Amino acid sequence: MNYLSPQLSGADLELLDPLLSQQDNRWTGRFHGLILKTALQPIFSISHKRIIGYEALIRAFDPDNASVPPFQLFGLPDSDQENVLLDRLCRLLHIRNYAAFQDDVNWLFLNVSPRVVASGYRYDSFFGELLRRSGLPPHRIVVEIVEQPTDDSERLRETVDYYKQLGCLTAIDDFGAGHSNFERIWNLSPDIVKLDRSLALRASNDPKARQILNGIVGLLHQSGCLVLLEGVETHDQAMIAIDAGVDFVQGFYFCYPRLELEGINGEVTDFERLLGDYKNRHRIRLDPTQQLAEFFTSPFLKAIDRMRNGESLRDACADILAHHTVSRCYLIDDRGVQIDDTASGQGACGELDPKYRPLENTSSADWYRQHYLKQALAQPNRMQVTSPYLSITGVYMCVTLSLGYRFKGHLRVLCCDILADQGPLAST
Description:
Elements lengths: L11 H5 L3 E4 L2 E6 L2 E12 L4 E12 L5 E2 L1 H4 L6 H20 L7 E6 L1 H6 L6 H9 L6 E6 L6 H14 L2 E7 L6 H7 L3 E4 L1 H9 L1 H16 L3 E4 L5 H10 L3 E2 L21 H38 L4 H4 L1 H4 L4 E8 L4 E7 L26 H8 L5 E2 L3 E2 L6 E11 L2 E10 L9
Parallel strand pairs: 4-6, 6-7, 7-8, 8-9, 9-10, 10-11
Antiparallel strand pairs: 1-2, 2-3, 3-4, 3-11, 4-5, 12-13, 12-17, 14-16, 15-16, 16-17
Protein name: EAL domain, c-di-GMP-specific phosphodiesterase class I (Or its enzymatically inactive variant)
GO molecular function: cyclic-guanylate-specific phosphodiesterase activity
C-alpha cells in the first residue's frame, strides 16, 4: 500500500485522491478497509461569546458502520510511510470538507502526526500545495503540534517555522500533560497553547491546582500566546476557565464533536447566562473583602492615633492582634522598608512553624515590591485589601490589610496579615 513517492512532494496529492470519495458535498476516505469521516468540534471565545474555530477530528467506521476507536485506527500503520500516509489522508479529508463548509471566517484546527513533525518540515512540504489547491487561506489554519519528548529541538523549531511561513497559525496541544515545559513555548513561540483537559479536572478538585492553572495562563499570556482550555465538561469547569482568564474553551459542556457539519456553525452556548453566573460568584467572593476593610478600619485608625501619641507598634495594635485570625502587624516607611520588627498575633495563628525560623526576623525587610504597599502609598487614608497570596514570612496563605497615613511629614503604612483559610469574620 505504497501511495507515496520517495520525495514526498506536492504530487502526492494525486496519489491520495483514489482514497477519497465524495457524496452530497461531503468527502470520505478509505484506509485499511475503514471508512474515514470528518467530525468538527466548535471552539468558543469567552469574550466574544461565540464560535471562533473548529477542531477537525477523524472518525473511523468498519464496513458494518460500527465505530472504530481512534487508537485502533492509528495503530494500523505498520511503517513510517503508512503513518505519513494516514496523517496526510486525514488532513486532506478535513480540508476538503472544511473548504465546502459554510464558514469563511473562523479557524480550522488540524492535528499533525508527531512522526511527521519529528521528520522535519521537508517531509511535510506537500501541505503548502494542499492549501494552495484547496483555496483555503493559510491564515485560517491552526496547526496543532502535540507536546512530546524530542531529541531534536532544532528540527522541531524548523518544522513549526515552516507552518508559520506558509501563513498558518501554530498551536501546542496537550500542554500540562506529560512532557510540557515552558522552554518549548519560548523556543517555538506558538500562537495558541491548548491546555490539557487534566488541568481542568484537577482544578475542579483542588484549590491549589486552580491557583496553579491561573498562574500558567498568566505566564502563557506574558509569553505572547493565546490560551485554550480543552476538555471542559461541566459548569464548574467552565467557571474555572473564565476565572483563569483563558481566551478560548472547548469541550462537551459547550458542544460535542459532530459528523453532521451542516448547521454546526449555528451552535449557540448561552454565554450571557454563563458570564452572569460568574459575575454573581465573583461579587460574592469579593464581599468578604469589603467586610474585612469595614471591620478593621476603626481598629487601624485607633492604632495609628496611638502610635502618633508615642505608643509602640505592639501596644498600639493590641486590639488588632487580639483577633483570632490576625497573624501579625508591621509598619513600613515610604521607601518600603519595615520599621522595627513584626508584632505577632496571639494564639496559634501567631506562632511560626519552626521549619521557617530563618524567615522570622523581618526587621528592616524591604517590601517595596508588594502590591499592597504601592496601593497604600498611592492612596493614603484608604484601607487596601489584597487577594489571598503566599506569605514569605511563614509560607501560609494570607490576606494583607494596609493603610497609609502621614506621620511628621512622611508617609507610613500600617499592615496586618490575616490567615486566608480561617474565615476572618466567622467569629466577629
